[in-house]
Amino acid sequence: MEKTGKHEVVVPSKGLPFKMFYFEGSNGKYIREKHWHRSVELFAVAQGNLSFYLNDKKYPLKAGEFLIVNSNEVHAIHAATPNRTYVVQIPLALFEAYYTGDQFIWFSHQEKIHDKKVFQLVQEMFLLQEEGKLGWELKAKSLFYELLYLFVTQYRKEEPQEELEKSNRQLRQLGQITGYIKEHYWEDISLVYLAQKFGYSPAYLSRMFLKYAKINYKDYLHSVRLEYAKKDLEKTDKPIGELALDNGFPSSKAFSSLFKRQYGMLPNEYRKMNMEHVKKETFQ
Predict the structure, then answer these.
(1) Terminal Cα-to-Cα distance of the chain (whole angstroms)
(2) Whole-prediction pTM value?
(3) pLDDT digits (tens, 9 = 90+) for 79-113
(4) Is the separation of the CB atoms in 29 and 80 below 8 Å?
(5) What is the spatial distance between Cα 43 and Cα 264, in angstroms, rounded to a whole number?
(6) Which of 40, 63, 69, 230 has its C-alpha lying 20 to 30 A from 149's C-alpha?
(7) Is 178 helix (H, G, I), strand (E, B) or coil?
(8) For the range 249-253, what are the long-range contacts, defined as Cβ-Cβ under 8 Å and sequence gap of 24 or more?
(9) Hey, is 81 helix, strand or coil?
(10) H-helix or E-strand spanning residue 256
């Protein structure tokens, strides 16, 4: 069986040097477990609320609030209720002239006096995209560079902690391994196999996951498989048993148990809920 998977790499929106989109958990009852990526991300909640977790610290966000997610910063998102959230993904290379270390830059999570201006810029960028008028990309880029200016002049930490830089380096190394996992998630990829492939001992690789990714290897693998399985539930009518095997689970029972623990409902219940939502959207 041939499949392709993607590591979390920013692919800019057409005509723009960055990517902008609405958060995929807008319908609520959504969990995106611990992950990290090279890009810098901005999550801005326009309606509703969600819970953000950065390095195990919880940040509740409500309408009008945003959070900057640093490159290689471990984060998770729990959206229990419907929301409308803007997401802007910024390639790390755009900050190259402002690195404080080896491919390293860090932005503060503390509230700043410019927070309202940042939110306003993001909101205007999405409004331009929705209207789609001639030349909207040019105006959006001008707002985006104003946003970057605020990032590097008002939110950048000039002397980040040494431990943050070390963690960043370790997560860059782990990123090669998690990229491989996302390209082979349906295969039988054990910790021992990955350790041998990437030149680590199983014990050391296990400690790397726990210390720097804040998650054990098995839970990380399950979270990746569940994400792809959830997309299959949304986009295909495959039987649950077939879908489970396609995504690397040993049985439909194991898949259903993990899915319920993660999302609070069984796979067939989620599929039914999603179908009802799609029908509702279609006829509105």
Answers:
(1) 39
(2) 0.78
(3) 999 999 999 999 999 999 999 877 789 999 888 99
(4) yes
(5) 24
(6) 63
(7) helix
(8) 249/225
(9) coil
(10) helix 252-263
